[in-house]
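Box 3.1 A note on notation
Throughout this textbook, protein chains are presented in two layers. The first layer is the amino acid sequence; the second is a token string describing backbone geometry. Keep the layers aligned when reading.
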Amino acid sequence: MTDPTRARAARDPGRPALRRTLGVWRVTLTGIGVILGAGVYALVGPAAAQAGGAMWLAFLLAGLTAGLTAYSYARFARLRPKDSPEFQYTEMAFGPTVGFVAGWLMLAGDLLAAATVALGFGGYLAHVTGTPVTLNALLLVVAAAAMMLAGVGNSVGLAIVLTVVEAAGLLFIIAIGVPAWPQGEYFAMPHGFEGVWGATALIFFAYIGFDELGNFAEEMREPARDLPRALFVSMAVTTVIYVLVALSVVAVAGWRDLGASSAPLALVARTVLGPAADRALTVVALCATGNTVLLLLVSASRSVYGMAEAGVLPRALSRVGRRTAIPTTATAAVVAITAAALFLGDVGHVAAMTDTAVLASFVMVNLALATLARRGRIPRARADVLVPVMATLLCAWLMLHTGWAGLATAGVLAVTGALAAVWMRRARRENLLGRTD
């Protein structure tokens, strides 16, 4: 398989390109970091309000859906290890227009996710300082932008340090909750199984991150070998941590108090160890949510770069800085859009919109793998049909539980993406005709 970075360099040797500096362990830790920070620290409260003490079951169901979808990403990573994976993978089966819609939906999901987690950061900071949540979130986005301009190596290096901090915080929560496990109301479902499925749809946001690893493909040394490994290891580790955290927080604080708290893990620490632990966990939560915002923005900028490099977004968005070797124009664009998305609503509302967009993109990726396998365009294995079909059904089921606002958002984004694809294709055709004349 031709290395896309080397092929591009051969076509245009004077043009800056991304550098292959990332190995499997750095990408794996990056995946763990972006998944952990996005979920537990920001959405435990809203999830507990819906699922009650059975929140652990919602985490398992969301993890199952994400794990089956990760299989599709791992298979495609061996076939086409390039940035903007949703566009690349879906385009292989359905052509550039459908591929663009899939990439467009995931890009929107990434930016909405970054805004959601930034608002989670703002809530934790407001818990300590009393400053406005949205202002706190905006300051975080600006700080993340400054870090991104320092280059992917520095961004990922900082993310690894913050990943260690956030993982330590979650292990601490698990440890202080273990003695209380026998008292947990683990089968209390205030809204029945419908509430559990609603919480699962919301909690699915907690697994957004495994898909982002595909956006590092062109900066990995051996993406076809290492990307599937990073995907599965990060999924397994985070699912175990999530379930154990759910058991501990419900046992210590109870699902009712968790559902009413804007800083649920800090509440758990304060319940067991007092106000000092509350402040310590708040600092850890700030590191975790800040880490996730940084990684989501880095990933989204690479998604924009990949689509622009493929010619389905304006070419200017593929510009790479000579000194930093990062996609500078794409970085500026995703930071600006994320900042604007902070004003769409609270954490739960924006998370629901995020989930619907991401789940719709996952449906398209899973169907792409099943379609290619059935057509014999890839070495056919039974799992390459059965697994993505199961993942498609679960993703579609969860979409139905995100609410009408989320479904409407996904519909508008899909239509907008299709129109944008047609416009870009027409613009390229006119440009080629102009050159011919």
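Residues 275-309 form the longest helix (35 residues). Residues 1-11 have pLDDT under 50 and may be disordered.
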